[in-house]
Design a protein that fits this description.
The chain is about 40% helix and about 20% strand. The chain has about 290 residues and is α/β, with parallel strands linked by helices. It is globular.
Length: about 290
């Protein structure tokens, strides 16, 4: 079975690679040699006609922020996500950002906001529409995506004056860090998170996207696994309910038989069901 799965994956990769180009290690700040402030762009071959998901000359743009407990992870890991989405007509940007312990959440969010500003100014050169930028993140990356979406200070600070057309949250961790840190078992993960959010309960609240829910007006697509961490399930449902209460368009989807890591690793395969839902979300919103 494992051999068959690897064969199918290899065939999928070869098919996607033939139609997609990648521009790597682009600095999105003035720090040209800082690998933590770089991004990769996956797009269709611009020497041929670019076909977006709805026929526009410029394609929708999805910025993906990786997870890793705010202390690990890198953009290169998710090359398959970029290629799979680009094949489907989405210009996909996968970013790095500063990590703990060198950085805390505010600097991480500032990095992500700087990447958004860079994409807005430059993505047209890669076939993307700067007026149709969406955010997506997994785990801690989903927290950062929602934080810069909900707390206006970050995008304002970098001079981004556009709109985020929508947000895709994949098994988002930390939507309410105040709640989590106040009740979580004080294990290795807890002490790891202190490096990102400090030991100050007031900071935990300020770093919680749900603290700014009244600011959120754009459509959301929220996935969570039915076998993921209870905190993710609880907070994803709460966010969806609060958005509905505020008349914000939101779709909440529980994915069967998936744990936390499996919620993103399943997307290695280009025919995974989440792609269809994401493409529909982009097409129908913004």
């Amino acid at each position: 079975m494992k051999i068959l799965m690897m064969l199918l994956f290899s065939i999928s990769v070869l098919s996607v690679s033939a139609q997609v180009r990648v521009s790597k290690n682009i600095a999105y700040t003035d720090a040209m040699n800082d690998s933590r402030r770089q991004l990769n762009i996956y797009h269709q071959d611009l020497s041929k006609s670019v076909t977006s998901i709805d026929g526009r000359d410029q394609a929708d743009v999805l910025i993906f922020i990786h997870g890793g407990s705010w202390s690990s992870g890198k953009k290169e890991t998710y090359w398959w996500l970029g290629r799979n989405l680009a094949k489907k007509g989405v210009v996909t940007v996968i970013i790095n950002y500063g990590l703990a312990p060198e950085q805390q959440y505010k600097q991480m969010a500032a990095d992500c906001a700087a990447a958004v500003k860079w994409v807005s100014a430059n993505i047209a050169k890669y076939g993307g529409n700067p007026d149709r930028i969406f955010l997506m993140g997994h785990s801690a990356g989903a927290h950062l995506a929602e934080l810069i979406n909900a707390d206006p200070q970050y995008l304002k600070a970098v001079g981004f004056h556009g709109d985020i057309k929508g947000v895709v949250l994949n098994d988002a961790f930390g939507l309410d860090m105040g709640e989590y840190m106040s009740h979580a078992e004080q294990d290795d993960n807890y002490y790891n998170f202190l490096r990102t959010f400090s030991n100050d309960p007031a900071t935990w609240i300020l770093g919680s996207p749900l603290h700014y829910i009244e600011n959120v007006k754009n459509p959301h697509l929220i996935f969570y696994g039915d076998r993921t961490y209870p905190a993710i399930q609880i907070q994803s449902k709460r966010m969806a309910n609060l958005l509905k209460t505020n008349d914000v368009p939101v779709t909440l989807r529980e994915i069967k038989r998936k744990k936390h890591v499996g919620m993103i690793s399943q997307m290695v395969f280009s025919r995974n069901q989440l792609y269809g839902e994401i493409i529909d979300f982009l097409k129908n919103n913004g």
